Give the backbone structure.
Amino acid sequence: MAKNGKEKKGGLLSYLGYGVGAIGLDLSYGLFNSYLNKYLTDVLKLSSNFLLVLTPLARIWDGINDPMMGSIVDNGKFRMGKYRPWILIGSLLNSIILGLLFNNIFGLSGVSLYVYIAFMYILWDMTNTLADIPYWSMVPSFTNDAKQRSLIATIARTFSGLGQGIVSIGGPLLMGLVSITKDPNTGEAVYDARTFTVMSVVCAVGLVLFSTISVSTTKEKHRTPPEEKFSFKKIFEVIKSNDQLRVFILFAMLSNAGFYMISGVGAYYFDVVVGNSESQSGFNTFGAVGSILGLAVIPIMMKFTSRRRTYQFSLSLAIAGYLGMFISGQSGSITAMSIAYLLAQIGTASMFVSQTVFLADIVDYGEYKMGYRAESVTFSMKGLLQKMAYTVQTVILYSGLSISHYDGDLHSANPEMAHTTISIMMLVLPMVLMALSLIVFSTKFKLTDDRMKEITAKLSAQEE
């Protein structure tokens, strides 16, 4: 009994060590997703039309690069394991690129600045992929037990939310402390170059630190690489053969895009519509609390119902929260909006945990259908769909800013059309995208609890 207790304790410590790595990854991703748009349009004064072209082009490359990285990881033969070396290498490179992306250290302007940003933008994507895909690919390698996978995914998502919270709550507060620029209409501090310089350095250091802790404290379960070399052609075969992977990409991309609309448009909304950028910190604090509470949804709901219904409940809760934000936004009550956002984030947090577990199930389903496992290629879809969701967000955002004649120098004095457009992107579109995701999931995703028990039993029998 003592031995079993020790093994359980060791397993939990390993899971916690693994989860810590998500803090660093989301420090980088949170800064990129929430504040890069604001930095490019307001500080560097780049054209929205240029950014509208850059983002989809970068995603086309991601469509090639992400699955390619997944196949490389699947065939890795490092002494440290299949995943950990890539997590460490990717985090180090991504931290360097993050600092360069948010700092115009060469004093570039004109065409050279546009080329520099395009290059760094794509490099950030590539180096993020180097760390992100191997990190999340480790989940199914720990265990085949569904409950343990949920525990691991919950721990990782908890730390991931902590990383996002540090950026979303600390960012606006840090802006107020280090910014020397004021809104001429309200006198409130606004984002400037110094703010982004400090935030990027903090996030870059945190990324390396937490990734190193994760790699040094985690003992991954080694698997034999596929005997047949996993070619790029095979990557498309995995996607083509696994129908549930394709369904997952669609419904997860829609829901993630809904979530990213809030984080991406938020800086504009509080600067332009509310007229107080620092109030975003309080709003995001409610969201962070909701993210923490949301992690309790799955273990509680799973006592009474299936994972499928739990996921549907999570999406419905998020939609209800967004509806509350829309209603309270009409009255201009930031407090009521914040409470509604807390509700939305409870649903969103549990949604993200479920998506990670669904991917682990999809790995097993793929092995059942194809006869071999493709963990990293399958989990590379997580990073790809996140970036696709981010692309949906940025295309909508840059189109809205361009059409509404947004001017980064005017802040709260922007034209009424800009106020209206930003409000729609913040309060209406997230609800619509999440509702579409719920419809796709409910009608097309077929990996129920009973179905996965059958698949797991058949795979276990094959191993014996």
